[in-house]
Write a structure and sequence with these properties.
Layout (H helix, E strand, L loop, with lengths): L8 E6 L4 E4 L1 H7 L1 E4 L6 H12 L4 E6 L7 H5 L2 E4 L5 H14 L3 E4 L5 H16 L9 E5 L15 H16 L6 E7 L7 H4 L4 E4 L5 H11 L16 E6 L3 E9 L23 H8 L21 H22 L5 H11 L10 H14 L9 H12 L4 H4 L2 H10 L7 H13 L6 H8 L4 H13 L3 E4 L6 E4 L11
Parallel strand pairs: 3-8, 3-9, 4-6, 4-7, 5-6, 7-8
Antiparallel strand pairs: 1-2, 1-11, 9-10, 10-11, 12-13
């Protein structure tokens, strides 16, 4: 199973009795598909995953049956009742949820099927359209996903299905760059839109009996068709796991216990007792004529809908107060540990092209996994330390007076220019050749070499550097310390 330096989430046990883990940072980058017939334990699996990660990452749960509202009692999720909200308010709430980093349960239980599709479409669209500055990582769990991304039409209108399907497609196909990690669960793969299911890289396949679903599950797991019948033998709560966040080869996993429970418990067997009244009286009682309908009461004015945006603002304020209190009680990492936490948050190959807010949320999650407060380092200091690490400066060099002066000078520049300035300063301090256009582009977070070259001209206008020559003969001098690079290679 996958392992992480920060302690992966414990899902349960394997058939060999070993711990079965899921790597949360990898899950955020690769998405998850859960499949299993009714009674296979999908909701139990989702609840286990949500409980294990509730204090580490923001969560949004699309809950068609109201099964997950009990998470709010233990983890302070905000419950949004969709039947009391308009599409416009839900769309605005989706954006606010990202801005406030609020964990919410979107409870669709009281909404009609048409309203469920429209509510989910509006809410996810609002989350998707949030400004880039708020692209924090968020787990978005969609239970009964075949309702919102159906492969064929149903009893709802074409427009409602289109709105919901477009939002689900955006979540799974384009959400990754926005920090939106989709976890979709379905009873039947054959009823789920293929373009939504195909974007998942991790799979947890539970008990299923229909040949078409078993064949599709086997294809996703890379199993031979004749091995597909193994899905019939899975017990409740057992799943075949595969994916970069789970296991390199298909492996049977038994999901561990949970701490919360759904309000709607399953049916329990009760002994059948014979009625203690004569059969004729029982017949008359059952077939008794219905009473006359009561006069229709005068319709009272509808109560105003709850102010959802005010609820989000209040949730954010109370959460910030709780986090501040918790941070005062937690240990403070030593400088080397803090340095390593920041370094590992930016070690992915594509980290240079991800928004700062996403990287900062990843750092906060790693800090919590390591047992520290998520607020041990403000975002501006995080950016400065991350840019310093990326340009090749060691922790000892970063503590020197010379580099402290560079950091102060960088603080006068726009935030997006600071990584480029640090890269140039480090090369000049060491007397190395001026970084090439590709290195400048990566530091700036762009794939455009022309845009990267233009930043040199901008830094010169800001009186941060002196640019000498062009192309292979380009040299850079850092104003202040007087360091100078060698000519470009």
């Amino acid at each position: 199973m996958s392992s992480s330096h920060f302690g992966p989430l414990l899902l349960g046990t394997t058939t060999r009795g070993e711990d079965a883990h899921i790597d949360l940072p990898e899950l955020l980058a690769t998405r998850l598909l859960v499949q299993g017939n009714s009674g296979s334990g999908k909701s139990h699996l989702l609840r286990r995953l949500l409980e294990q990660s509730a204090t580490l990452v923001q969560q949004v749960i699309i809950d068609p049956e109201g099964d997950f509202v009990t998470l709010a009692e233990k983890y302070d999720h905000l419950v949004i009742e969709t039947d009391t909200q308009s599409e416009a308010s839900l769309r605005s709430a989706g954006e606010r949820v990202r801005m406030h980093r609020a964990s919410v349960v979107l409870n669709l239980e009281q909404s009609e099927p048409e309203g469920q599709l429209r509510s989910v479409g509006a809410f996810l669209t609002g989350m998707f359209e949030a400004p880039r500055a708020y692209w924090y990582p968020v787990l978005i769990v969609v239970d009964e996903a075949q309702l919102f991304a159906p492969i064929a039409g149903g009893d709802t209108s074409d427009e409602a299905r289109r709105i919901s399907l477009n939002a689900m497609t955006n979540l799974m196909c384009r959400g990754r760059k926005r920090g939106m990690a989709g976890i979709i669960a379905t009873q039947r793969l054959a009823k789920l839109a293929k373009n939504v299911a195909a974007e998942a890289s991790n799979f947890l396949m539970g008990r299923t009996f229909l040949d078409i679903d078993m064949a599709r599950a086997a294809d996703l797991l890379g199993m031979e068709r004749r091995a597909a019948e193994a899905f019939r033998d899975l017990a409740r709560g057992q799943f075949m796991a595969l994916g970069p966040a789970l296991a390199r080869r298909p492996q049977r996993v038994t999901i561990g216990p949970v701490e919360t429970a759904s309000h709607a418990g399953g049916p329990a067997l009760m002994p059948l007792e014979q009625p203690n009244i004569p059969m004729d009286e029982l017949r008359d009682l059952i077939l008794e004529a219905p009473p006359e309908p009561a006069p229709r009461p005068r319709k009272e004015p509808a109560a105003p809908k709850p102010d959802l945006l005010a609820q989000l603002d209040a949730y954010s304020s109370s959460r910030d107060a709780r986090e501040q209190q918790q941070s005062q009680q937690m240990a403070t990492p030593d400088p080397e540990t803090l340095w390593n936490l920041v370094a590992e948050a930016g070690q992915d190959e594509d980290a240079a092209y991800r928004p700062l807010a996403t990287l900062y949320q990843d750092f906060q999650m790693r800090a919590r996994l390591a047992g520290f407060s998520r607020n041990i380092l403000p975002m501006p200091q995080f950016q400065t330390m991350l840019s310093t690490i990326r340009c090749g400066i060691t922790r000892e060099q970063a503590e020197s007076d010379a580099w402290q002066d560079i950091q102060q000078r960088a603080g006068r520049l726009p935030e997006d220019m600071q990584p480029v300035y640090f890269l140039l300063a480090r090369a000049a301090m060491e007397g190395e050749p001026c970084p090439d256009d590709a290195a400048l582009a990566r530091a700036y977070g762009t794939h455009s070499l022309g845009r990267a070259r233009r930043q040199l001209t901008y830094l010169e206008k800001c009186e941060a550097i002196i640019l000498q020559g062009t192309g292979r003969h380009r040299r850079i001098a850092i104003i202040g310390p007087g360091w100078q690079t060698a000519a470009s290679l």
